[in-house]
Design brief:
Blueprint (H helix, E strand, L loop, with lengths): L9 H11 L3 E5 L8 H12 L2 E6 L2 H6 L7 E4 L4 H12 L3
Parallel strand pairs: 1-2, 2-3
Helix pairs in contact: 1-2
């Protein structure tokens, strides 16, 4: 894997995505910015066809939000193995 950058907010993530067009994005479900994680994920999927792994302290919140995702949810805290499994799941063909 090649990490293209770490973004503290959705605005910076959008800039990185525009520049690098990621195949996979790891997105915090609750972002501390004007744009939330779900909105950012929709943008990444629609514009760049990026797979998305949601990282969250409350996995039920992602499911309850109504996001019809086809990607992985990773509950905090997580191990390296769990991260690797989530990435593999998100990158599997549908």
């Amino acid at each position: 894997y090649h990490v293209i950058g770490i973004a503290a907010d959705a605005e910076r993530a959008s800039i990185l995505a525009e520049t690098f067009r990621p195949h996979l994005s790891i997105v915090d479900f609750r972002l501390a910015s004007a744009i939330d994680g779900v909105t950012l994920a929709h943008e990444l999927v629609q514009r760049y066809h990026s797979a998305v792994v949601f990282v969250t302290g409350d996995p039920r919140a992602v499911c309850e939000h109504g996001w019809e995702f086809r990607h992985a949810i990773l509950a905090k805290p997580f191990s390296d193995g769990e991260l690797e499994a989530a990435i593999a799941a998100a990158c599997r063909p549908l």
